[in-house]
Amino acid sequence: MLHENDTIDEVKKEVLYHVAKAAFEGNLDQIEATLPYEILPGSKPKFRCCVYKEREIVRERIMLAKNINPATGEPCQNTVKIIPAACENCPITRFTVTDNCQKCMSKKCMQACRFGAISMTRDKAYIDPDKCKECGQCYDSCPYHAIVDIMRPCRRACPVDAIQVGEDGRVRIDDEKCIRCGSCISKCPFGAISDSSRILEVIDHLKGDRPVYALVAPAAEGQFGVDITMGSIRNAVKKLGFQDMVDVAIGADFVSDSEAKEWAEAYQEGKKMTTSCCPAFVHLIRRHFPELAHHISTTVSPMAATARLVKAMVPDAVCIFIGPCIAKKSEAGQDQDHPGDNAELVLTFEEFEAMLRAKGIRLEPCALEEEQNGSIHAKGFSNSGGVTKAVKQALMEQGVHTGVNVRQCNGAAECRKALMLLKAGKLPEDFIEGMSCEGGCVAGPGNILEERAFKRERDKQLKKADDRLITDTVAAYREFDFSMHRSV
User: Fold this and answer.
1) pTM of the model
2) Residue 113 phi/psi, 5° resolution?
3) How far is it, in rounded angstroms, from Cα 480 to Cα 10?
């Protein structure tokens, strides 16, 4: 049941919890129609104009939790989707003249406008919304900064201009442009954009006969509290029905080792490269800079590396990645030629928490140290700059001493700038580390807590990590044969 003070995140969590609970009990089809009434009982609205609109929003969120596009009723192709009933059309004029306007004689705003949209009234300048093309020249030219730019939050958040506005005022997502970063999801104040879920398929796998393994991202450390370690999560996933859990930091160590060799070779050849760990960054290159695709490292992501390791050990295993990234959902199983070379499905921390709650499982401090672990360098993969540090550590362990210079891009905007320089042949650095989320994976849109809220706890946990070498991890699993490279 929802309450008036609940936020968008709490609405989403409540829907995911009810869907997961019904799926575990096997009665979702029977109660799906009544769930909106169970979640929002009574006749008094709590968030919107009326309870009927609120229930429609909940109904459409239930559809997304089933991986169904609310707008079409078809299975979701893109991970990021609009919730039509939740979009408020945002009926705002982007550029508006404020009372700071001095009605100055220079009339720089009028001179800057090429469309005749600005005129002078008795008190101040006026922008005609019917003539305005939203070019922003008036905004840049006003000496008093009296013109404000009120772009829709979702459009402002999108780094690739994938969000467009239809004639009805509602937004739509251009799937060909979208890089699945999820930035728009966290920025929309109405919760009108969300990620589709494969939580039902995960639960079906848990009920099936094949062994299911949870691959947990390093960003999990600190996300659930300072006392909740990877061992705590491992105990919880086993109670959920998973065969076992594997720390993706192990896969990150393999990636560091492989990418170090690739970087060293590229450096000797004078070839510039980009990292391949962040799927949104890879989407950015392939969709908006396709001519640079050959610069992407052929080393797979830590998720894929861990999945390949698990399947080398247990050939019929089903691998479910658990982390903060929404773009990972589009990476899982995306290789049509070799679909078994990656995790089958992805859960965000929000979805994982909903499943735990649905089964009444609590994450509790673990008295024993977990048996498996990656290096502290691999655990830093989830921080901006962490991949660079880990690869340089691997180079040092391999006895390779080069003067590689890396451009660490923190956020999609910095990634775009670096790629534009690379495209123009003016990138001074040798390699690009691309992270779509500012701060790295620890700031991903699928987190339960904001980075600031758990960073201190995470730092405390990382201090407890041992001084294990990257090569120690690789050596520990040397007997298992699997490729660390994607098909080109």
Assistant:
1) 0.91
2) -75, 125
3) 43
Mean pLDDT value across residues 256-266 = 95
For the chain, the residue count is 488
Paired sense of beta strands 95-97 and 147-149, if any: antiparallel
Torsion angle defined by CA atoms of residues 66, 70, 71 and 73, in that order, rounded to the nearest 10 degrees:
50
Both structure tokens of 363 = 């994450």
The residue among 16, 48, 49 whose CA lies nearest residue 35 is 16
Between CA 221 and CA 400 the distance in angstroms is 31
Token reading at 286: 């392939």
Instruction: Give the three-state DSSP class for 101.
Output: coil
Nearest alpha carbon to residue 374 among 153, 220, 263, 262: 220
Describe the strand order of the beta sheet including 431-435 as a list of residue ranges. Answer: 273-274, 431-435, 406-410
Note the pLDDT tens digit of each residue in 429-460: 999 999 999 999 999 999 987 777 777 767 76
What is the rounded distance in angstroms from the CA atom of residue 286 to the CA atom of residue 292? 8
CB 319 within 8 A of CB 344: yes
Cα–Cα distance for residue pair 384/380, rounded to 1 Å: 8
Task: Give one DSSP letter per residue of 342-370, joined into a string.
Answer: S-SEEEEHHHHHHHHHHTT------SSPP
211-229 tens-digit pLDDT: 999 999 999 988 888 788 8
